[in-house]
Specification:
Layout lengths: L2 H5 L7 E6 L6 H12 L2 E4 L18 H4 L4 E2 L12 H14 L3 E4 L3 H9 L9 H14 L1 H5 L4 H4 L7 H14 L3 H5 L10 E7 L3 H18 L1 H9 L15 H8 L5 H24 L9 E4 L11 H10 L5
Parallel strand pairs: 1-4, 1-5, 2-3, 2-4, 5-6
Length: 322
Amino acid sequence: MGKTDRAETGFGQRTALIIAGPTASGKSALALAIARAFGGTIINADAMQCYRELRLLTARPSHEDEAQAPHRLYGVRAADEPANAAWWREAALAQMDAASFPILCGGTGMYVSALVKGIADIPDPGEAARTEARRLLAEIGPEALHAKLDPQTAARLKPGDSQRIARAYEVWLGTGQGLAFWQARPTNKLEGWRLKMLLLDPPRPVLREAIETRFAAMLDAGALEEARALLALGLKPDLPLLRAHGMPELAAHLRGEITLEAAKARAVLATFQYTKRQMTWFRHQELVSKTDMQIIHSRIDSSKKFSERDVADFGNFMNFPD
């Protein structure tokens, strides 16, 4: 039975695979191996990889990888067109419907959760509320703005999380209800799909080394020039892509504030700290049933060769027929 046939029989018609885990754990390499073995379509579930300007810094799949299996929702938006979970969910569902075997690959927990659990229908607070929220954030700082939120919403946010605090305040200002109120309303939970999940959770020292090695490779490949080109666009400073891993540190170097070595060290540390938050989040979520999830306690290197036994194990996990 051919690869496409295996993906289109049994549970394959309405089964999707989620490959999640921290940054630099090897999600893309694993997704590509499984896609090649079973005729899968890889659908991006990483917020930063939706944008086209930073292929290197966001570790988007290479042109060579994209030629080996269908890749969707990678580099499809401009930096000045901010993506969000609602947009991504709608786009991902369309791609899932079009694929015989969808493989959702990424570490943006908010996107994966939105897909599985649905997303609250929050009214648009309006441009005036957005402008006022960001004005107050700049004027009084995140902690003082946090104190202005309704108690239910404030309890869910850290006082230093400036972006989420500004978003929460604009929702309260523009709708008259706190963000927690809207999030508690009924949502469009995913139906008609059986979800399987592979969660990568490599040892911390292995992950730290991989982050350092990968960032050095990014710089060798031209990441600094990529960052310079993005800054030259003169974008608004609060756009998401300007917060991509390594971008704030390289921007500081390009402004002459720190050396390149210091930028590299800070970027590696910040990325590693982010991976710890990622795994804490994934460990506390119930996105699929326990029987539909496997945790892989190793990093998947792009050079790894999967044996026939490995491929068979993945097929059994997905309930594909022999």
